[in-house]
Amino acid sequence: MAEQTLTNLTREEQRFEPPADLAEHANVKEEAYARANADRAAFWAEAAERLDWGREWDQVLDWSNPPFAKWFVGGTLNASVNCVDRHVAAGNGGRVALHWVGEPDADTRSITYAQLKAEVSRAANALTALGVRKGDRVAIYMPMIPEAVVAMLACARLGAPHTVVFGGFSADALASRIIDCGARVVITADGGYRRGAPSALKPAVDEAVEKTGEMVRNVVVVRRTGQDVAWYPTEEGGRDVWWHDVVDGASADHTPEMHDSEHPLYVMYTSGTTGKPKGILHTTGGYLVGTSFTHWEVFDLKPQTDVYWCTADVGWVTGHSYMVYGPLANGATQVMYEGTPEKGRWWKIVQDYRVTILYTAPTAIRTFMKQGREIPDGFDLSSLRLLGSVGEPINPAAYVWYHEVIGGSRCPIVDTWWQTETGQIMISHLPGVTAGKPGSAMKALPGVVVDVVDDDARPVAQGNSGYLVLREPWPAMLRTLWGDDERFKETYWSRWEGLYFAGDGAKLDEDGDLWLLGRVDDVMNVSGHRLSTAEIESALVSHPAVAEAAVVGAADPTTGQAVCAFVILRDRATPAEGGVGGADLGEELRRHVAKEIGPIAKPRQVMVVPELPKTRSGKILRRLLKDVAEHREVGDVTTLADSTVMDLIKSASPSSKEE
Ligand code: WT7
């Protein structure tokens, strides 16, 4: 697979030099690399000076007990004060923080920093009145509306770690996250607008809360769509309160407490190689330093003049680091859009709001390519000056299209590699320094130390590929997995002594630049979202008809990878005729996965097979299934316990359901 990706990626020879004007006025210039190399702690300390601290730190980094890092030890700060209050105090209260654009056309709101401060303060007072205290966990399950940002900042203000669950996840997925982090309050909305129609959220919360016993005290509900919802009033011993009832009347004055630099800021669940999602813990000081500095550095943000738009949903880490915490800490003006990439809508937003910086994912770019350039060509995109990409490698064809059609051949593209775990961008172009090379994410940012190593942790020579590792701690790094220090050590730090293993393969080219080659573990990347094979397999086997399941991510022209499932049915479930597994069963299993995890995890394809390819020790050889799913010659089968199973699988797969 790695080789395949690489040949696809290396075809583009064009290089894109930084525009002279941008280079001249860039926030971060070439000298930063040497400065950071000479004294990394001093480099990050300088980055930290960009924030407001209650108490200055005593020590930049405590790495005496690896892999448990402490950054800005002894310092205190409040993330919400840094994202909101300080801009008002500096005289920028009239600056727009959020240009919110709802999915229904006429639905827009522009919110200044002063208004945001008042709203966050009200929400903090309302949560306090509901009994939320420092350290309590709050789950947030919301559409892309300003209240989602307000809710996060209000939690941060109180020191109540939030866990935002993507609104596309199912009730079961929400319940397991609420239970894992012990959330006392859930903030949600009646629904949100998706593809032109209201889509409910509250019923999933009701179902999830039922599964959590007595854990959840209150559900705070924003009225967004006005649709009917089941209601459990507090006066009758229930738990539901309307956001407008508790927040609108609350005081807009709230005196924030300064929290320890290492106080938990949030938990974000992400898929790993087992069925149970991992609760990535980010803390306050280092995270805010890492995200705000890199946002200013990589996007070359000029807060007085730029209009920044990150298209990620608030339910993913990109929404946390580069829509909420990084940009707001920098006093940016940004666009927040409720909907999905429909034809022309994004370009109308860029035109209407004079967006200067756009940060999105390759899968969206490929979708727009398919729709045709006539659509963006019909809008005035001349305000754009910088483009960003995240989530998966950007293939050269998409890169060049993005550069020419969206960027008018004048905007640099920053290809940013990072992870939920890293919290901040780690590898990227510096827009005023680095010439763009389509397909390569280029180099580690100043202050970040990455390497590509072989099985024995030896750095590979230029021109070779291996595993991507991080050699030194960085400010926004995850501190642990919520409630599971052992799994934290085991997952990221056990493969090689002293190295963080990211799970990605990478190649170092002849110039020493990095090419990301995708995951080397059992994790898929579908439309830039991380899905675990094990999680989907366990959802499949929870269906009564399924005896065993194996899931692979197969190459897909739009989504990068697509979920392909191979299932063995229980004896009694095998339909008598019409081939093994009819279309109906495939559809039913797809629906079942959507219910268990969420629509994003739905397999593109379910193939009913008589056997799965296993080694003698019982490990499923997914790479062979991937060969089948990608219609390739099946690779080396010598480690199979029974080498004939692949023939059985291949002969079974054509009768399967495909769409
Ligand atoms: C995985 C992390 C970081 C926010 C979005 C996804 C892949 C991410 C790139 C890129 C190549 C990339 C990696 C990584 N990835 N950005 N620019 N080039 N691959 O966050 O769900 O934590 O996934 O996404 O495989 O490990 P995530």
Q: What percent of the residues sit in helical stretches (DSSP H or I)? A: 25-40%
Q: CATH homologous superfamily of the largest domain - what is it?
A: ANL, N-terminal domain
CATH fold assignment of the largest domain: Rossmann fold
Number of distinct beta strands: 33
Mean pLDDT: 92
Radius of gyration: 24 Å
Which ligands, by name, code or SMILES, are bound?
A: 5'-O-[(S)-butoxy(hydroxy)phosphoryl]adenosine
Describe the structure.
The structure is a single chain. The protein is α/β, with parallel strands linked by helices and 659 residues long. It has 3 domains: 20-78 and 264-518, ANL, N-terminal domain (Rossmann fold), CATH 3.40.50.12780; 79-257, Rossmann fold (3-Layer(aba) Sandwich); 527-657, ANL, C-terminal domain (GMP Synthetase, Chain A, domain 3, 2-Layer Sandwich), CATH 3.30.300. It is built from 21 helices and 33 strands. The strands form 10 sheets. Strands 5-4-17-16-18-19-20 form a 7-stranded mixed β-sheet, sandwiched between helices. Strand 14 and strand 15 (278-283) form a beta hairpin. Helix 8 (171-181) packs across helix 9 and helix 14 (362-371) packs across helix 16 (396-406). The model is unreliable at 1-9, 576-580 and 655-659 (pLDDT under 50). 5'-O-[(S)-butoxy(hydroxy)phosphoryl]adenosine binds next to helix 12, strand 20, strand 26 and strand 27.
